[in-house]
Amino acid sequence: MEGGEERAPMLLLKKKKGTEEEEEDESRLVLKERAFIESKKLWRIVGPAIFSRVVTYSMNVITQAFAGHLGDLELGAMSIANNVVVGFNFGLLLGMASALETLCGQAFGAKKYQMLGVYMQRSWIVLFLCALALLPMYFYATPILVRLGQPSDLSALAGTISFWSIPLHFSFAFVFPLQRFLQCQLKNSVIAAVSSVSLLVHIFVSWIFVNRLKLGIVGASITLNFSWWVNVLLLYCYVTCGGCPLSWNGYSMEAFSGFWEFIKLSAASGVML
């Protein structure tokens, strides 16, 4: 009897330990399942965004590769023009467009869908004005690069490329707000699809202009302009032709209200990036 009484608490203790271990196993299983589900949701959003950025970078790399076939001077000039002149303005305008992530995200969460279109139009205006203010960098790229210590022949060719990149510069003012507008509505797959089309167009146009038509470094610069504007027009057509019925209700004069606050937010985002 005494032995049986001693064994009873031990059996209860073993059962308790077994139950605790089972609960731990179940909680681990539940955590793994939840982590897997959340990661799937995350990659549905992040995957297309990563792909779009890779495609955007690839277009510049492809242009530099075509320039490299023309000669070392052309490759160096294209690299400097893209990374110094265009690259600086790219970063500033991209940062300014990032203000839309905050405003459109808040409007989308509050179900004020019509405000997303208003904010995007406001961003177009602000970024276009900023693009106009930055134009002297393209016109005076050659003396700027010479002052920075670059050789005169390299600076002259980079200045020519910068001048021909002005249409590309203005495409940033429209494509970045369009991308942020769609991203806030979880339409990253649309951005990725349009980026893919633009990349294919860019490869074909680069081959035609540089290899077939023999337009040289100017032809290589024109291909980037053309491909980026294809990106802009495809996204614009998607938004305005029924792709975003809740958030796009046409042009509105409301885009001009609250202008100063929007400029301050955009400028802070631009400088930060």
From TrEMBL:
Signal peptide as annotated in the record: none
Pfam annotation, one family: MatE
Keywords: Membrane, Transmembrane, Transmembrane helix
GO molecular function annotation: antiporter activity; xenobiotic transmembrane transporter activity
Membrane in keyword set: yes
Transmembrane stretches, start-end: 42-60, 80-103, 124-141, 161-178, 190-210, 216-239
GO CC entries: membrane
Keyword Transmembrane helix: yes
Xref: InterPro entries: MATE_fam
Region (Disordered): 1-24
Family per similarity comment: Belongs to the multi antimicrobial extrusion (MATE) (TC 2.A.66.1) family.
Protein name listed in UniProt: MATE efflux family protein member 2e
